[in-house]
Amino acid sequence: CGSQTKDRPSSVQTKSKKTLARPGMKNIVLVEGVRTPFLLSGTTYAELMPHDLARAALQGLLNRTGIPKDSVDYIIYGTVIQEVKTSNVAREAALGAGFSDKIPAHTVTMACISSNQAMTSAVGLIAAGQCDAVVAGGVEFMSDVPIRHSRKMRKIMLALNRAKTLGQRLSLIGSIRMAHLAPELPAVAEFSTSETMGHSADRLAAAFGVSRLEQDEFALRSHSLAKKAQDEGLLQDVISFKVPGRDIVSKDNGIRPSSMEQMSKLRPAFVKPHGTVTAANSSFLTDGASAVLIMSEEKALAMGFKPKAYLRDFVYVSQDPKDQLLLGPTYGTPKALERAGLTLNDIDVFEFHEAFAGQIMANLKAMDSDWFAQTYMGRKTKVGVPPMEKFNLWGGSLSLGHPFGATGCRLVTTVAHRLQKEGGQYGLVAACAAGGQGHAMVIEAYPQ
After folding, report:
1. For this protein, what is any one GO molecular function term (predicted)?
2. Residue 354 domain-assigned?
């Protein structure tokens, strides 16, 4: 699985293990990753549209890399709740950011792993020899979501549009009832089970015996670590963004370290009265966008870039969306490690998506259970648990925020930055997503 590397001269690089380069396969690198500040929905971004945020992230990437606007071969964006007017938000944002109109762009959706899918699609295009440089990213804008008329009302309105005579129009208007006027709102719920994600998280926490105390402690950890990372200037992927008609925004605004006492006062948000998932230990509705530049190593070096990390093996997994909705990390982790020929002990940096504290804790318990591995995963032994001293050390989705479509790029860029800062060699990203799906990816530090 690749040759031994020479010892790397570096002040931080403490150990040198084998590299995951494979003979005959292109090395694919993360050159740079940026994101807009992640803001609570309904705050400073409230009057914008999703493509405005995506455009800001793309402009930030252009500014930071200085890559010529026609040197990118393809652009892919992930998003979950689509704005109807910009259904291919990748294209609209790319044009707005000033990229060449000759660059094709498409938009993908895969719930909370939409930008993971954008990145791995980029890896696929480069590996296949189609492209040398691809920009991937993601955006979510929860301050404004499409709200529809009811189906009956939509039918009447479409018929009105086709009606020829005044009589036909009056007859259709006369058929409208009060009940027809009730709107349809998008919900963070499973189509197949009609259960909201918070409800699923609460059931999952209960199934694995995760207490309210454990969840509140984990959420407090996330906010405290995020605050520390923000104060120390470690969140270097965040770019400043001048919001038209408002201030310049330069940092995430959902980071709020509380106290266990304050958190204990909150009522359950989903399963009442005995549930353990609350507003304080769940990720919040967030607006934000991210963008990364992914290239073949050859092309990156030829253009004079210093890559941040190699993107190595990755997997997508899928389970039952009723009882195992949020267990993607547990299923994805061993598969990604096996593909790379690594063990859990080889990983220096872990970045897992935090949808709910209960979901993270349930995954950690599932990963630590021989019974779960044998009963559900067809494995003889448990996956193993990431040590907390390597886990989400700069905060996570609970504190930094979770714009659905943008989080994947944040995770990968954070791993690259943490590997550089901490002198590790391998990082692992893992995330769960609606539909019972998940993603895991191994990232290798670029020699410093």
Report:
1. acetyl-CoA C-myristoyltransferase activity
2. yes
Tell me which residues are annotated as active site.
112, 402, 432
Total structural domains within the chain? 1
Is residue 399 domain-resident? Answer: yes
What 8-state DSSP symbol labels residue 229? H
Domain that holds residue 70: 28-144+284-445
CATH (domain of 438): 3.40.47.10
The pLDDT of residue 16 = 57
Before 9, cis peptide (omega within 30)? no
pLDDT beneath 70, residues of the chain = 1-16
State the Cα–Cα distance between residues 251 and 90, nearest whole angstrom: 24
Q: What is the pLDDT of residue 187?
A: 85
Write down the pLDDT at residue 186. 87
Return d(Cα 143, Cα 138) in angstroms, integer: 16
Q: Could you give the 3-state DSSP secondary structure of residue 51?
A: helix
Q: What is the pLDDT of residue 178?
A: 96
Q: Tell me whether residue 48 is in a domain.
A: yes
User: Could you report the per-residue pLDDT of 170-223, keeping only the tens digit for each?
Assistant: 999 999 999 999 999 988 899 999 999 999 999 999 999 999 999 999 999 999
CA distance 351 to 412: 8
- Residue 315 included in any domain: yes
The pLDDT of residue 15 is: 52
- pTM assigned to the model: 0.95
Q: Is 264 helix (H, G, I), strand (E, B) or coil?
A: helix
Would you list the DSSP string of 233-260?
T--TTB--EE-TTS-EE-S-S------H
Distance CA 281, CA 277 (A): 6
